[in-house]
Write a structure and sequence with these properties.
mainly beta
C-alpha cells in the first residue's frame, strides 16, 4: 500500500524572502501532517462444499461500490484447480493476502492489490493462520487425527518453512499475546477430545504450558487486555457448549458464559456473538449476543436491532470493519448454494446485503493510509 505525503518547501512560497538583501528571515512553520487510514474494500473467502473443490474469493470495492464474485479464477487462469478444497481462514499481512485451504493442504499467498497468485506453502490439514514479527504461523491437524497436531512457522519474505512445534489434538484457531502463541486444541475428530490451550514461546518455538479449559475448543480471540475468549463445542451429548475467558497473566480460566457460540469477533470493548442450538428434531435456534469484554458481562441486547435476523437462514462468519465499525455477518443458507453477506452499521441497522459464493466465511479488510496536512 502506498503512503502519500505532501511536502512543502518554505522557499518556494510566495512572499518569502530567499535573497541576502532581506532585512530579516521569515519563520516558516511546516504544516502538521496527519496520517488518515481508510478501508478501501474487503476480500471474502467462501469455504465451498467439502470435497467439491470450489472454494472461491470475492472482493468488495468500496470506491466503485461493486461486489465482485469468484475473482481468483479470472485473475489466475493458470492455476488448474483454482483455490482448492475448503477455504478455512483469510488474513492480510505485509501487503499480501493469505488463504488457508484446509483439505487441499496449502496456504495460498496472493498480492493484496491484484489477488494474483504469488506462492503456496504445503501444510496438510491446515486450519488457521496468524502472524508475528515477520513470521507466519499455521495450525495443522497433521496426517493422522490420533496424533498431536502442530504449528508450522514460515518466513513471510521467502515463504520458506522454518520451525515446527507439536501441540494438542487437532489445533484450531490461534492468537498471539506478549510474544506467546496460544493454540486452541479440539480433538473433535479424534477418539478422545482435547481440552487444552497450548502456550508457545515464539522466541524458542517451544510449548511452555498447556492450559486446561474444556473439551473440543475451537474459536479464539484476545481482547485489549490480553484475555483469551475461547469457545468449547462440548461433546454433543452431556457436556454443553460454553464460552470461556482465560487470563494470560495467570494462564487460568477466570470466567465462563453458558452460550453455544458458533462464531464471534471482538472489536474495541465488545464481543459480537452468534450461536446455534438444536431441538430434538434438529430444528436450529439462532441467538445474537454481545459481551462487554472490559467488565466481562453479557449485554441484554442483540447487535442486530432492525429485525433483519428474521431473513438470515444460517449465520456463519462475523467481523467488524476496523475503521467504520460496520458489522459484517455472512449467511451460509443451505451450505450448498450461494450464500450472502450482510452489512450493518454500528447501531445494528442493515445497510446492504449481497449474494456470495458457497459458504461465505472469512473477511479480510484492505486499508490504505494517506498523509495530509492539518
Amino acid at each position: 500500500m502506498k503512503r502519500f505525503r505532501y511536502v512543502f518547501i518554505a522557499a518556494v512560497f510566495a512572499g518569502i524572502c530567499v535573497v541576502p538583501s532581506c532585512e530579516e528571515d521569515d519563520l516558516v512553520v511546516p504544516p502538521d501532517v496527519v496520517d488518515i487510514t481508510t478501508t478501501t474494500g474487503f476480500y471474502l473467502l467462501n469455504e465451498g462444499a467439502w470435497g467439491g473443490n470450489n472454494a472461491s474469493l470475492d472482493y468488495m470495492d468500496y470506491a466503485e461500490g461493486k461486489y465482485k464474485r469468484n475473482i481468483y479464477a479470472d485473475i489466475n487462469p493458470e492455476i488448474v484447480k483454482e483455490l482448492g478444497d475448503v477455504g478455512n481462514d483469510l488474513q492480510i499481512y505485509g501487503g499480501k493476502l493469505y488463504a488457508i485451504i484446509a483439505s487441499s493442504g496449502l496456504v495460498e499467498i496472493m498480492d493484496i492489490t491484484t489477488a494474483k497468485h504469488i506462492a503456496e506453502i504445503s501444510v496438510p490439514n491446515c486450519r488457521s493462520i496468524v502472524f508475528y514479527n515477520g513470521k507466519g504461523y499455521v495450525s495443522s491437524w497433521g496426517e493422522n487425527m490420533e496424533n498431536p497436531g502442530y504449528v508450522v512457522e514460515f518466513d513471510t519474505i521467502n515463504f520458506q518453512k522454518a520451525r515446527q512445534v507439536n501441540v494438542g489434538l487437532q489445533p484450531e484457531e490461534m492468537v498471539v499475546v506478549n510474544q506467546s502463541l496460544y493454540v486452541a486444541n479440539s480433538g473433535g475428530m479424534a477418539s478422545a477430545y482435547d481440552h487444552t490451550i497450548s502456550m508457545i514461546d515464539l522466541n524458542s518455538m517451544v510449548e511452555t504450558k498447556k492450559i486446561d479449559v474444556a473439551v473440543n475448543l475451537f474459536r479464539m480471540h484476545a481482547d485489549s487486555d490480553g484475555d483469551l475468549y475461547v469457545t468449547s463445542r462440548g461433546n454433543y451429548f452431556d457436556v454443553a457448549p460454553k464460552l470461556y475467558v482465560v487470563s494470560t497473566k495467570t494462564n487460568t480460566v477466570q470466567t465462563s458464559f453458558d452460550l453455544a457460540v458458533e462464531n464471534f469477533c471482538i472489536s474495541g470493548d465488545t464481543a459480537y456473538i452468534f450461536g446455534v442450538t438444536y431441538a430434538a428434531d434438529y430444528t436450529p435456534t439462532v441467538s445474537y449476543n454481545m459481551i462487554n469484554v472490559k467488565t466481562e458481562t453479557l449485554l441484554s441486547q442483540s447487535f442486530i436491532t432492525d429485525e433483519t435476523e428474521a431473513s438470515i437462514d444460517m449465520p456463519y462468519g462475523i467481523t467488524v470493519d476496523p475503521i467504520s465499525k460496520d458489522i459484517y455477518l455472512t449467511d451460509a443458507k443451505d451450505y450448498s448454494s450461494s450464500g450472502a453477506v450482510y452489512c450493518f452499521d454500528k447501531h445494528g441497522k442493515k445497510l446492504w446485503e449481497t449474494a456470495t459464493g458457497i459458504i461465505p466465511s472469512h473477511i479480510a479488510f484492505v486499508t490504505q493510509t494517506t498523509s495530509t496536512e492539518q
